[in-house]
């Protein structure tokens, strides 16, 4: 984008700020649902800055502007902000001021900060205002300059929503609503207001396609003791959905009507202060009960039907991956030019052959050689590397199927792996196996198990900075809570039915990246005199690259685990494969010899 | 004790309660310093109940009485409370009411609960009163019936205190006070009031012998910007101590003078709300800054002199243990009768041969066979078992030396170990070794590493309910914070210089108990492109019983670790041993053969 356009937009913004007596405005990259993926309608920060990374906050004062983003985006932001007058603030560097400190530094006592209270949660705005008030700075929480300045702003998506049948969801919405109403009462409330899109989709067994990757739809939901109200663009719901919701006494009202409606009720309404928009929280006349939402924990524990479907989705996904890798391998062996983007396209193409496929679950990472060391790398036409018969290719990919959501990472040698590549790969794989093999008492938290995946890397002074495991939705968001497996404490215990990733890695800047990821299901292991013990069942199905094993550091137990796993992969995927793909898999899953 | 005496004491107590309009009184087993070991002066709960366990709280109402204690003391409490009219409340059972619930249940609105505000911390009394006030119940926090009823109450100990020289402490009190004053200023205060006895002893390089096992003395300390005041029984300090403290401008005043003195100051005083007595906290006229004490973290990171001394203490301790075990083994082989109490006495006797010895660091646990499965078992003349040439003997023991505090547990086979004993012992030992071998990045917390010690037990549906590791003081308390290695989250990171125990175990009720414990020191491992890594150095020196190894589940790495450790034990202890003891050690430390 021409930087002069950004300069003009900032000047127009400052005219409105002066007019309203606002000395600084904060423009986050977020929607009123705290979504990971957002429709274009909410890309306000990009409109005012030109920066289109997935994380970053813009602050504009009357004579300065600055954008905070993390290390993933330092290069991209520097390029996109060039000539715009916006200063890049590199998060994580000791010299970088916080947004608080920056605003306080440029503001005098009595100054006013403008922001859109729909894009701040109750909790985050309370914290911001507490900090600012110590310096006698006030806020205008209804400041929405994009409404007038962004003349060609895309509308909210009006894509239709559809019903996910009980054969996929496994539990009727009536049952889910019944369980939720019990939890609402236990929290001391009579009703609940939900704004998290995946919680609403799960609760109502509805899906949509408003954004890429997440099969959710833009709406908020009021759950009353005897029915409810879905706040949504009415054009999105056909007669079938209307009748379906009517069966649960759930009416529909326009998306923006929620605050006014909630103020008209006279019951105690439960809401999650960590996601509820501050503007809604502050609507006069609503009696709130602020507490964590019970839905993420309910949603995380998959039911038996979801699990049966999910195991099927894993087979579909595994077969598509085998077909894709066999195809890519053949093209490379034939001397064709194959790029990172070709890998991405090939994977989606083979996935799309299955009728259950509804899109990818996130943008595929196909990072060759040094690109593999960039943790959130996605190839673009500018970066697209040509694969050569050497080095490591890191593929992190997943699909959305009616039968469930998948997410898998494999690191593949394209030829002649070095001793160091094999050694590092095996360290990562040993950690992956140690976590997958874990048995642990009921009540164990992810942070307690995280070290199992890191211990072998740590022994050699190596580590990775991302988490080891995130929750995964059922035909929903590929990242969901409440559980996690990571360094940081999270009080949520791993419970039977939860699906979590197991994905240790290692990243050597400028050289290569390694990650081994399967999804694992928490299941029961044993009841003993010492209590109830849980373990993991591995769900993902695709072989690990045997040419990358350093046999000198693998134990007999680990080799037996790999052989068992490969036997299961082969027997489960074989019926879905034929020809070269089947031969490729048979060879990839052959027993490992000492 | 005759239960009628208890009934008479309770009746006398109730007369005072009626007179003061108090409907319930709470009598905890604690002193104003929240000490683990207390002088007899503070055994008020025992005076009114007859129960002398180390944990438990008595509640007396006008017509009922109940005592809460944990599972360690269920049998003992039931016996000691028999006939006293005091009901036993078994903590941890779902049917047991909380003390709150009990009091609320027997009290009417407007009732008054009596307690001694010196025995409740600011934090615990605030929480109690918040709970009670919801039911319109008030408190009288100056209710001390023992002052009148306990006519032969032992006075506070007046044992002399002494100076720990710099050759032992490694840092002069002036330097420690300087560091503390910096931390006080950083916390926004000008002075500090300390009540934890081990913090005061560490800070001033003074020691005492007021209680068993902990070389502390009863006092509280006010640290001013330019000096301080030690509140203490003036008879305890000789001229040397008086002159020594004078050098730091620290005066002495009577023990009970602190609240009045603090109220006369006009500076902001830092205090730890988790240990400060509520009565002191509520003294009018004191301007408090409530924050965690900086001292435990300072004290936990041992200096180089302390570490050099501590390594010497480990050699003294290891040699004493070898002498004791050699002696016991010889008596058993000669057919003498040897009991658990003989083991305790023999250990203390050989320790006492060294001039650095100042007592045991806790009551030795010598649990033979099924006694080993009772986690806090200490043999008494009633329970004292005779050792036979079979089964397991669990010995958990430690000494206080001028050179440092030790704490070690060994599980020893007395003959013909069963396959199950060897298998379970080896599972515990594998966990002990895995934790001892850990390498981890700076910032790692104990709760992240705990699983390393438990993983092999968990694989078989086994576990232990106590923590894996506690901090250990330098010639101070054998249990100290702030770090720990356990299931529960503790935000404190393991830092270089910290000494922590590594003590997984397994307890099979009615059969046997196993525990393997060494003290380990956190040290630097490596600085790499991925950051700074730490590891443990094993401090304790005594061989593990090789007759209890199940070779089929030990890895080469674990055997190499054991051989390395035994080589170090032998080479360090040999110069201190001769004759049979040296021969015993040479045999116990011989390389392990597959």
Blueprint (SSEs and pairs):
The structure is a homodimer of 594-residue chains.
Chain A: H1 3-20, E1 24-27, H2 44-49, E2 57-61, E3 65-69, H3 74-81, E4 87-90, H4 99-106, E5 112-114, H5 122-133, E6 138-140, H6 146-149, E7 162-163, H7 166-169, H8 173-186, E8 191-194, H9 197-204, E9 206-207, E10 219-224, E11 227-232, H10 239-246, E12 250-253, H11 258-264, E13 268-271, H12 278-281, E14 287-290, H13 295-300, H14 304-333, H15 340-351, E15 357-360, E16 365-368, E17 392-397, E18 399-401, E19 404-405, E20 408-413, H16 419-436, E21 439-441, H17 446-459, E22 469-471, E23 480-485, E24 499-502, E25 505-508, E26 512-515, E27 518-528, E28 531-538, H18 556-573, H19 579-588
Parallel strand pairs in A: 1-5, 3-4, 5-6, 8-13, 11-12, 13-14
Antiparallel strand pairs in A: 1-2, 2-3, 7-9, 8-10, 10-11, 15-18, 16-17, 17-20, 18-19, 21-28, 22-23, 24-27, 25-26, 27-28
Helix pairs in contact in A: 14-15, 14-19, 16-17
Low-confidence stretches of chain A: none
Mean pLDDT of chain A: 96
Gross morphology of chain A: globular
What class, by secondary structure content of chain A?
A: alpha+beta
Largest interface: A-B, 32 and 32 residues
* Main β sheet profile of chain A: 6 strands, mixed
Number of strands of chain A: 28
How far apart, in Å, are the first and last alpha carbons of chain A?
57 Å
What share of the residues of chain A lie within helices?
25-40%
Strand order of the largest sheet of chain A: 4-3-2-1-5-6
Radius of gyration of chain A: 25 Å
Number of helices of chain A: 19
Q: What kind of assembly state do the chains in view correspond to? A: homodimer
Strand content of chain A: 15-25%
């Amino acid at each position: 984008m021409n930087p002069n356009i950004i300069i003009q937009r900032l000047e127009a913004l400052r005219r409105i700020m002066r007019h309203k007596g606002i000395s600084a405005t904060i423009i986050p990259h977020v929607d009123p649902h705290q979504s990971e993926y957002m429709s274009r309608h909410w890309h306000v920060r990009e409109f005012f800055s030109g920066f289109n990374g997935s994380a970053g906050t813009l602050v504009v004062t009357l004579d300065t502007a600055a954008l905070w983003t993390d290390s993933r985006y330092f290069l991209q932001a520097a390029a996109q902000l060039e000539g715009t007058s916006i200063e890049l603030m590199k998060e994580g560097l000791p010299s970088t001021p916080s947004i608080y400190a920056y605003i306080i530094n440029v503001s005098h006592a009595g100054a006013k900060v403008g922001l859109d209270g729909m894009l701040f949660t109750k909790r985050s705005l309370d914290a911001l205002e507490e900090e600012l008030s110590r310096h006698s700075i006030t806020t205008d929480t209804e400041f929405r300059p994009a409404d007038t300045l962004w003349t060609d702003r895309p509308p909210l998506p009006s894509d239709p929503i559809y019903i996910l049948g009980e054969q996929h969801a496994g539990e009727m919405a009536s049952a889910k609503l019944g369980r939720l109403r019990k939890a609402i009462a236990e929290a001391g409330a009579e009703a609940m207001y939900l704004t998290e899109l995946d919680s609403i989709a799960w609760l109502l067994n509805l899906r949509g396609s408003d954004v890429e990757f997440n099969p959710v739809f833009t709406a908020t939901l009021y759950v009353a003791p005897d029915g409810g109200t879905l706040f949504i663009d009415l054009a999105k719901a056909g007669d079938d959905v209307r009748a379906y919701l009517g069966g649960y006494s759930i009416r529909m009202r326009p998306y923006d009507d929620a605050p006014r409606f909630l103020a008209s009720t006279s019951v105690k309404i439960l809401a999650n202060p960590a996601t509820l928009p501050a503007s809604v929280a502050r609507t006069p006349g609503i009696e709130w009960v602020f507490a964590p939402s019970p839905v993420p924990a309910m949603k995380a524990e998959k039911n038996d039907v979801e699990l049966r479907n999910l195991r099927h989705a894993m087979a579909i996904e595994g077969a598509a991956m085998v077909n894709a890798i066999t195809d890519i391998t053949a093209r490379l062996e034939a001397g064709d030019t194959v790029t990172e983007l070709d890998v991405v396209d090939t994977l989606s193409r083979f996935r799309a052959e299955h009728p259950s496929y509804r899109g990818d679950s996130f943008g595929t990472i196909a990072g060759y050689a040094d690109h593999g060391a960039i943790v959130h790398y996605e190839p673009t036409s500018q970066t697209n590397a040509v694969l050569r018969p050497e080095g490591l290719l890191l593929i992190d990919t997943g699909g959305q199927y009616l039968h469930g959501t998948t997410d898998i990472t494999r690191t593949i040698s394209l030829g002649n792996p070095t001793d160091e590549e094999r050694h590092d790969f095996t360290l990562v794989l040993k950690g992956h196996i140690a976590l997958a093999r874990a048995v642990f008492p009921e009540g164990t938290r992810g942070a307690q198990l995280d070290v199992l995946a890191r211990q072998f890397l740590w022994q050699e002074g190596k580590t990775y900075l991302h988490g080891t495991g995130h929750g995964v939705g059922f035909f929903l968001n590929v990242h969901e809570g409440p559980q996690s497996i990571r360094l940081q404490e999270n009080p949520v215990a791993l419970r039977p039915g939860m699906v979590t990733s197991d994905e240790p890695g290692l990243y050597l800047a400028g050289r290569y990246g390694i990650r081994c990821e399967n999804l694992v299901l928490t299941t029961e292991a044993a009841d003993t005199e010492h209590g109830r013990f849980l373990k993991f069942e591995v769900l993902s199905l695709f072989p690990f690259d045997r040419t990358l094993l350093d046999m000198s550091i693998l134990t007999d137990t680990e080799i037996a685990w790999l052989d068992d796993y490969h036997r299961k992969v082969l027997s489960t995927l074989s019926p879905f494969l034929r020809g070269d793909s089947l031969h490729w898999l048979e060879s990839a899953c052959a027993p490992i010899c000492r």
